Amino acid sequence: MDPAAQNALLQMASKSSGGGFLGLSASGLFAGLLFSLAGYLYFRAGWREKDFLTLGTGIALMAFPYVITKTLYIVLVGAGIMALHYFYRNYQ
């Protein structure tokens, strides 16, 4: 494929996906990384304690940033997952 066609395809892909890496802005990437790190910590704690709720919360926190691309939604969904875990654990 010639360089002009490759450049045209890259421009179309970046416009259709919202630009950035995987369609995420820098703040979206940072939020996704932050919630994935928190998910990893939840996952490790769940694995160590054999607690399936904490293990599942960790898996959910690590997986959802791959599906959701808007920064606001990443923050809301991540905070919601963590809040559900907290309230279920403490007010069962």
Order of helices and strands: HHHH
Pick out the low-confidence regions.
none
Percent helix, as a range, is: over 70%
Q: Structural class from helices and strands? A: mainly alpha
Summed up, the helix count is: 4
The major sheet is characterized as: none
| Overall tally of structural domains | 1
**What Rg do the Cα atoms give?**
17 Å
Q: Outline, from the CA principal axes?
A: elongated
Portion of residues in beta strands equals under 5%
Kindly state the number of beta strands.
0
N- to C-terminal separation?
A: 60 Å
Mean pLDDT: 86
Short summary of the structure?
This protein is mostly helical. Helix content is 76%, strand content 0%.
How is the topology of this model organized?
Elements: H1 3-16, H2 26-49, H3 52-63, H4 71-90
Helix pairs in contact: 2-3, 2-4, 3-4
